[in-house]
Design goal:
The chain is an alpha/beta fold. The chain contains 13 helices and 7 strands. The mean pLDDT is 95.
């Protein structure tokens, strides 16, 4: 999607465009959930509804040439990094016109052309990948930064500690973005981590840490800019801790028996990043309705594009296979 020129904070004039981008991600994922429940999409589906400010705030702060690695909740990151909704929807439908030509689907999609090194079904799988990419940028003398998105559950994975240890040891230009929604699939953070401040884990490696409210897109952007400038300036990697909210279950169809049934409803009423930004810029009901209609039409067009896409040939399943 459209990006503003890199600067320390978002201009007031840009905030409606930021709201549009967040709303597009929201409506895209709602439509994808609808079609998944209708039986049109294969495999599992994980949405990041409630976490849109994290994706948009960080990706708006990136510069041309920067790369990201995502998680199994990759739709928002992918749209925010610049992939067209048509290409993303086509990928979810397994079409050749998809951003990964139908090879990736929801949990394994990628868009190398736009600096998206891929979603990861493996928890924490993108962390060593980003450390490696950042090392390459450093060795080539390129002013680029590699960014990893991951959740709180990933901070318990061995590759998290290995990736951060090497990144700090080598002082590579990497930014590690923790989207802390307090749930590791169905396990609450209090039951999988002995500490409540997960940024302390990065401090163990001597890494610089920063925090922001992940529901406030302006705060996310400002923090991401500082982190990216620090890394790009050769001062080493940064750990960014974003406190965010997952409105949905771990996957579509998750009965969420582990969660208070009123929690998600209450969070939507008080911590919705779309509504928080809408209130901040004082967008009228009519203007918001117009914006909503615009992005909904884009999503519907993407759905039509995907359904009319080209199915891969059966023999294509044998391509790009390495043993």
């Amino acid at each position: 999607m459209a990006r503003v020129e890199a600067r320390a904070s978002l201009a007031k004039a840009d905030l409606q465009d930021v709201l549009r981008e967040m709303l597009l991600i929201r409506r895209f994922e709602e439509k994808v959930e609808e079609r998944f429940r209708a039986g049109e999409l294969p495999g599992f589906l994980h949405v990041a509804i409630g976490q849109e400010a994290c994706a948009v705030g960080v990706c708006r702060a990136l510069e041309d040439g920067d790369v990201i690695a995502s998680t199994h909740r990759a739709h928002g990151h992918t749209l925010a990094k610049g992939t067209h909704p048509n290409e993303l929807m086509a990928e979810l439908y397994g079409k050749q016109e998809g951003c990964s030509h139908g090879y990736g689907g929801s949990m394994h999609l990628y868009d190398i052309e736009r600096g998206n090194l891929g979603a990861n079904a493996v928890i924490g799988g993108g962390l060593p990948q980003i450390t490696g990419a950042a090392l390459a940028f450093q060795l080539r003398g390129e002013p680029r930064v590699a960014v990893a998105f991951f959740g709180d559950g990933a901070t318990n994975i061995g590759t998290f500690h290995e990736a951060l240890n090497l990144a700090q040891l080598w002082k590579v230009p990497a930014v590690f973005v923790l989207e802390d929604n307090k749930w590791a699939e169905s396990t609450p953070e209090s039951q999988h981590s002995p500490i409540r401040d997960l940024s302390e884990r990065a401090k163990a490696f001597g890494m610089k840490t920063m925090k922001a409210d992940g529901q406030d897109v302006e705060a996310v952007y400002k923090t991401a800019r500082k982190a990216l400038d620090h890394a790009r300036g050769g001062d080493g990697p940064v750990f960014v801790h974003l406190d965010t909210v997952r409105f949905s279950g771990h996957y579509i169809g998750d009965p969420q028996v582990y969660r208070d049934k009123d929690e998600a409803r209450e969070l939507r009423e008080t911590r919705d990043p779309v509504e928080l930004l809408r209130a901040k810029i004082e967008l009228s009901d009519s203007d918001f309705s117009e914006l909503d209609t615009e992005v909904t039409e884009i999503v519907e067009a993407a759905l039509e594009f995907a359904k009319n896409g080209t199915d891969p040939a059966p023999e294509d399943a044998l391509k790009n296979v390495y043993a």
